[in-house]
Structures are given as structure tokens and as C-alpha cells.
Amino acid sequence: MLQAFSNINWLAVAIASVVSIGLGGLWFGLVAAKQYVRVLGREGQPAPQQRTVDAVGPLVCIVVVVLTSAVLVAALQLSTATDAVVFGLVVGIGYLLAMTFQIAINPNFPHPLRYGALNAPYFLTTSLVTSLALVLI
């Protein structure tokens, strides 16, 4: 597995990270912004004060997820678009979506299933985009 690090396509990691960050900005900043406030039960409340961790944290997490996928793609020696799509679906559904719902199922989320459903398209899309970039670039 450690040898996989030497086979990482760093250009693909950079491109997938930038695209995923851009998609996150579009999804959470424009497309799902109002619904996000609603599923968190914050309608009519002032927006929380922006902290550094709120801006930087998601970027770091995206890069970590992309890098982790890059290690696995290299270790598994994936080489076709079909491989990439299957891998993206396995990671997207098996890890990212499952964890999104698991995190939301707690008393701090008034609408956990709606929260998971709102986040699911972003995480599944970025998993597929990341996998395709890592395999095809």
C-alpha cells in the first residue's frame, strides 16, 4: 500500500480537488443554500458567525478524501472509466453517503434524513468526478 504513494497522479489530485471544491461552493452556496438552513432547523435565525475552520476545514477535508481515493486507485491499479465509475460509486455510497447519514442521525440534527439526502448528491458526484479524474488524467 505504501508503494501506491509513488504512483499517485498529483495533477489529477489537484484537478479533482479544485473541481470538488468548486462543486461544493456551487452546491452549498447556491443550489442548496436555503434548503440547508431549513434541514438544520435554522430558519429565521441569523447566520452563525463565520469562523476560519468553517472556510478552511471543508477544503482540507476534500483534499484528504481526494488523496485517499488516489492512494486506493493507485493500489488497485484502476485504469478504465468503468473501473473509475464502480470505484466512485463504492466509495461514494459505501463511505461518504453512509457517513453523512450517520453523522446526521443525532439529536443536533432536527431533520437527519433530509440532511443526508441534501448532502448525498454532492458527495456522490464528487466521488465519481474524483475517481474519473484519477483514472483518466
TrEMBL record:
- Is Transmembrane helix a UniProt keyword of this protein? yes
Show the Pfam families listed in the entry: DUF1761
Query: Per the record's keyword annotation, is Ribosomal protein included, yes or no?
Result: no
Q: Which keywords does UniProt give here?
A: Hydrolase, Membrane, Protease, Transmembrane, Transmembrane helix
Q: Which GO terms describe its biological process?
A: proteolysis
Q: Which GO terms describe its molecular function?
A: peptidase activity
Give the stretches traversing the membrane: 12-33, 53-78, 84-105, 117-136
State the protein's name: Membrane associated rhomboid family serine protease
This protein's species is Actinomycetospora corticicola
